[in-house]
Target: ABC1 atypical kinase-like domain-containing protein
Amino acid sequence: LVFQEIDYTKEAANAELFASNFKDMEYVKVPQILWDYTTPQVLTMEYVPGIKINKIQALDKLGVDRKRLSRYAVESYLEQILSHGFFHADPHPGNIAVDDVNGGRLIFYDFGMMGSISPNIREGLLETFYGVYEKDPDKVLQAMIQMGVLVPTGDMTAVRRTAQFFLNSFEERLAVQRRERELAAAELGFKKPLSKEEKMEKKKQRLAAIGEDLLAIAADQPFRFPATFTFVVRAFSGTI
Model:
């Protein structure tokens, strides 16, 4: 992780690299750096106003498609982590805004906290996603070994069983969420929709359950998660 908020010329360079990585994607906007007015103590950027990404009512008034916007947010981080190996590590609502250009565009601000991922970690993460999608515990384990997350032992039976348990749990949670959405849609005319607080509480419960699974798995297995993973998880949790 790179903390570079003291020297603003470094933050400006981060912004330009980030912008270059997304130059062919119309749904991402990075304010242009005005180098003539930028010094190590002063950062001057193009003025690009937008609505904070968590201001739902304002986004609806703007007329953007929130489902598409959600997909863009996730896709942008998959691009950053799996393709570029250089990602925005502080994606709170103050740092991501939306305007109505191109039908709804993500605007990124504040490039003082960026993360970097080595090629082997990126390849391993990609293979992990494929393994999860294909429900293949062996592919997941091989990807973890490639990343250095898993130290191979003589007998991998217990580790493989753990991976299968996690894949099954993940699939079950997805099925529960689908059923909840279908039920909510069916009962919308008869039942009061969940409040913002209730939705947040459900999300916390799901994340807590996943966290408990991870702790149970890590307790007795030879997993070694690099420090970078903390910021990868933080980045994704900020966009979900």
Notes: Residues 2-116 form a domain with the Transferase(Phosphotransferase); domain 1 fold (CATH 1.10.510). The chain has two domains: 2-116, 119-189. Residues 157-186 form the longest helix (30 residues).
